[in-house]
Amino acid sequence: MPREAFVDGRYLPFDSAKVHVEDRGLQFSDSVYEVFAVREGRILEMAPHLARLKRSLAEIGQGMPMSDAALGVHVREIVLRNRLADGLVYLQVTRGVSKRDHAFPATAVRQSVIMTARSADPAKAAKSVAAGVAVICVPDIRWGRCDIKSTALLANVLAKQQARTAGAYEAWLVDESGFVTEGSSTNAWIVSEAGALVTRSIRDNILPGVTRAGLLAAIAGEGYTVEERSFSVVEAKKAREAFITAASSFVLPVVTVDSTKIGTGRPGPVTLALRERYLAEAG
Ligand code: PDD
């Protein structure tokens, strides 16, 4: 099945889809993005992803490139054209093409809208869930606006590569006080020694994860003790369970942090129940 990409209003063969050399996304990472999960042909959490895109754009002085309804049509269309059953849709909006100058273009230019779709293997994902994944901790060297879903991801890229090199799935980013902020491309959670679900507050310079919010909504009123607060690496290593959330992995058990076993060293019952609950609600 030939793949297709969406670039500036046109569906193109994936291999020949190109962006301009002076696109501000390429030159300055002057662009924001969203990643949508597709599960059994359905796009998960479309509305909250579009709302976050709108917010990211507003924070960099931009509006949406088209209406939510029109963007939604294109997200669905890229799924159909790529015959995606399970996988991800990537959507990027840049400030557009303009002569290289750090300041915004003096006259408004058309935003660039780029979309790609990629399939994922549910069997492979199931294996990761069954085994759990390893994370390592690295210093968080990012900027002060991690709430904006910017494509300026160099610090995240370097952290993820450190994880890969160490044979781990994810890198947890740690602030100067020893608190875990989030993963390089995921939100971080623990089930504390006391049994509370703990995840950093979105007021503390992290990405407001759509999966994070979806999970919190799915379990509201179900008797969990939820603490939206920072947790340290030391606390994480003593936790009963740990897990990460993202559109690309839903709820995924973490079984080691810096090679320290979390709990029994196996995916925990709370994490697995939360995954089921999230998928029942959102998936
Ligand atoms: N990453 N934190 C960071 C830094 C992220 O990049 C992501 C998502 C998340 C989780 O957000 P959500 O639940 O909305 O996917 C948290 C995407 C999947 C990516 O960059 O590929």
Structural descriptors:
283 residues; alpha+beta; ten-stranded mixed beta sheet; six-stranded antiparallel beta sheet; 8 helices; binds N-(5'-phosphopyridoxyl)-D-alanine
Structural features, described:
This protein has 283 residues and is an alpha+beta fold. The chain is built from 8 helices and 16 strands. The structure holds N-(5'-phosphopyridoxyl)-D-alanine (PDD). N-(5'-phosphopyridoxyl)-D-alanine binds next to α6 and β14.
What's this model, at a glance?
With 283 residues, the protein is an alpha+beta fold. Helices cover 30% and strands 29% of the residues. The longest helix has 14 residues, at 46-59.
Computed structural class: alpha+beta
Q: How many strands, which pairing sense, and closed or not: the largest β-sheet?
A: 10 strands, mixed
**How many DSSP helices?**
8
Count every beta strand, where a strand is a DSSP E run of 2 or more residues. Answer: 16
Question: Secondary-structure element sequence?
Answer: EEHEEHHEEHEHEEEEHEEHEEEH
Which ranges are low-confidence, i.e. pLDDT below 50, for 5 or more consecutive residues? none
Strand % is 25-35%
Name the helicity range: 25-40%
For the termini, the CA-CA separation is: 25 Å
| General form | globular
Query: Mean pLDDT, as a whole number?
Result: 97
Bound molecules: N-(5'-phosphopyridoxyl)-D-alanine
C-alpha Rg (nearest Å): 19 Å
